[in-house]
Write a structure and sequence with these properties.
The protein is 81% helix and 0% strand. The protein is mainly α and 134 residues long.
Length: 134
């Protein structure tokens, strides 16, 4: 990490924090879906939603894995880490924008899109560092 400039360090820290949050939330959805749904999201639980809990939990664990992979590649000086970070950031941004357009909800726009845009910005800055290799 000492070879990274400030933007790269912020990128690693940002992805690390997001990965921890995604891991905790994904695990919570898989292990205790009804309580997570009701306390975390204010949605009344129904057994018909159980499949959604499994799908969302696994999606968040996959996202966590991609974030960790991006961190590892970036720390090794591999350009692919920053590229994967940009892909993750664009994906997060789209989640917020689409949720806003479809549902009119600004919480996803504020939370997901802003962290997605920050991830894209710092991943791009990281990709421009001279020590990155293809």
């Amino acid at each position: 990490m000492r070879n990274l400039k400030l933007g790269g360090k912020i990128f690693i820290i940002l992805l690390g924090l997001q990965a921890i949050i995604e891991l905790l939330l994904g695990g919570s959805l898989l292990l205790n879906f009804p309580e997570t749904l009701e306390t975390g999201f204010g949605i009344t639980y129904s057994s018909e939603l159980d499949f959604l809990g499994i799908a969302l939990g696994l999606y968040l664990l996959l996202l966590t894995s991609l974030m960790v992979l991006s961190i590892i590649w970036t720390l090794k000086g591999n350009y692919s880490g920053a590229t994967l970070g940009i892909v993750i950031g664009v994906f997060l941004t789209l989640i917020g924008v689409i949720a806003f357009l479809q549902l009119g909800r600004t919480d996803g726009l504020i939370i997901d899109s802003s962290r997605g845009l920050l991830t894209v910005i710092f991943a791009y800055m990281t990709s421009k560092q001279p020590k990155m290799k293809s």
